[in-house]
Amino acid sequence: MEKALKQNKMGSMPIGRLMFNMSLPMVISMLVQALYNVVDSIFVARIEDSISAAGVNNALTAVGLAYPIQFLMFSVAIGTAVGMNSLMSRRLGEKRFDEANSAASNGIFLEFVSAIVFLILGLTVIGPFFRIFTDDPAQHELGVIYLRICMVFGLGVFIHMGFDRILQSMGKTNLSMAAQLAGAVTNIVLDPILIFGYLGFPKMGIAGAAIATVIGQWVSMVIAMLLVLLGRHEIKVSFRGFRPNRTSIREIYRVGLPSIIMQGIGSVMNTGMNFVLSRFLTDGMGVAIMNVYYKMQSLVFMPLFGITNASMSIIAYNYGAKDYKRMMGTWKRTVIVCVMIMTLGLILFQIFPKQIVSVFDTKGTLSDAGVRAFRTISLHFPIAAVCITMGTLFQATGRGFYSMMVSLIRQLVALLPAAAILALTTGSLDAVWWSFIIAECTSLAVSLFYFSKLRKNELAAIKNYEPERA
Q1: What span, in angstroms and rounded, lies between the C-alpha atoms of 432 and 420?
Q2: What does the pLDDT look like over 299-337, one tens digit per residue?
Q3: Cα–Cα dist 165/187, whole Å
Q4: What percent of the chain has pLDDT over 70?
Q5: Residue 230, Cβ neighbours under 10 Å: how many?
Q6: 429, 376 Cβ separation under 8 angstroms
Q7: Rounded Cα gap, residues 217 and 357, in angstroms
């Protein structure tokens, strides 16, 4: 085991090639993941019997209203997995194998408990949740059907995420990609079959979209489990005689809990934005446009997250190994690549917004307002790239609190108040979208403050312990 670890590619392979080899599978898998979310909404937008008299697609609006709770599910699953990934990678870099194994087993246990919590919530609180945002009985009914299925059968999200991060922490992103792709392709294939009743299946409408999503998640979960449990890896997951380990759980949540809160704040933000758009503005289009935007922006952000997830494992491993040059060299390359990706996304959203929105707009009711929204919101993309990569550095070095504070200030202190003020003072949907630029500039300022603090303290200490190079 000692010899195998010394040859771990995260500590020896040239950084540029290492990042490419680890990031490419994750970028591909996350792009496909984003694509099936987009495809899901495209098919939902074509459920003709859900169009209201005002021309608003009730099914698309219902999915948009459900998004904050789905986002919260992913926040808990991903946040726990981030804590696992950071701890496992650091322990591998420190050559503490038993503790890496403990982190993996306890992380999967925490993911399972989280899935049970959301199952219970899915059976109890969904109806009251939708009544906060809509008085339309059609939107309420469709939203409850869709979200209840996703929550009650959400185990696939949590367990897949845990096993996926075990693979990532060992640098085996090609295996992670295989599990992601299998689930995404399953979802894309099943969407039209179950929604519209092809190949002898009954026409299920929005329930079919939810069932296709759940089946895709379970396929990813099963494949990721098999890849970890049946393969020969540095990290071993075992539940024989398992008892929760307080030390491992504490360390997982030291990074994971701030990440959960950080991403959970995103759910609160989405809920608040839906409230602003549905209650302060009365044209009925804001929520639908917001839903379309978030699905399409994921095609830009997901490659960035693929790169930052890969770089987090590399940074955390070399942080544990006290190799300052490799750690910071990885982070600097991550910043450059991510800014390039987001700049490309900005260009596409500025040039082709009408073509993007029209894919979801079967009745032509969203196009003009959607074009203006896409062009305004996308202005924050390059700034977001810098903030996200700084957050990756915070999490990889075990400083998840910094990321949490940045997210809290960005979304609850800056974004939501700005959106509410702009909606109330102007009464204009177009004005609300400028809240994203205000929030991202605020996020950049706070991120730079925490980065300066990290560099003066923890990073300076690691630099002093840089290993000798031949």
Answers
A1: 8
A2: 888 889 889 988 888 888 888 778 888 888 999 999 999
A3: 21
A4: 91
A5: 8
A6: no
A7: 27
Residue 3 has a pLDDT of 45
* Rounded Cα distance, 194 and 185, in Å: 14
What's the helix, strand, coil split of the chain in %, to 5?
Answer: 80, 0, 15
pLDDT less than 50: residues of the chain: 1-6, 53-55, 468-470
Which residues have C-beta within 8 Å of that of residue 228, sequence separation ≥ 6?
163, 166, 167, 235, 237
Q: Is 51 helix (H, G, I), strand (E, B) or coil?
A: strand
Task: Check residue 295 and give its pLDDT.
Answer: 79
Please tell me the pTM assigned to this model.
0.71
φ, ψ dihedrals at 283, nearest 5°: -80, -10
Helix and strand tally (H, E) in the chain?
21, 0
**C-alpha to C-alpha distance for 54 and 34, rounded to whole angstroms:** 30
294 phi, psi to nearest 5 deg? -65, -35
Residue 44 CA: distances (Å) to CA of 31, 71, 339: 20, 18, 32
**Token pair listed for 387:** 């903030």
Residue among 116, 74, 165, 83 nearest 401 (CA):
83
Continuous segment of H or E residues that includes residue 177: helix 173-196
Give the amino acid at 165. Answer: R
Cβ burial, residue 185 (10 Å; 0-12/13-18/19+): middle
10 Å Cβ neighbour count for 418?
A: 19
Q: Compute the radius of gyration of the chain from its Cα atoms.
A: 22
pLDDT value of residue 54: 46
Decide: 326 and 15 in contact? Cβ < 8 Å: yes
Indicate the DSSP class of residue 411: I
Alpha carbons 190 and 188: distance in angstroms, whole number: 6
pLDDT of residue 74: 87
* Two tokens, residue 299: 């095609």
**CA–CA separation, 300 and 306 (whole Å):** 11
What whole-number distance in Å separates Cα of residue 208 and Cα of residue 146? Answer: 9
Residue 121 tokens read as 């919530």
Q: What is the pLDDT of residue 267?
A: 75
Nearest to 28 by CA among 430, 289, 355, 307: 307
What is the residue whose two structure tokens read 């609006």? Answer: 61
**Interhelix angle 435-454/416-426, nearest 10 degrees:** 160
Cα 352 from Cα 337, distance rounded (Å) = 23
Q: What is the pLDDT of residue 438?
A: 96
Q: Round to the nearest angstrom and report the end-to-end CA distance of the chain.
A: 24
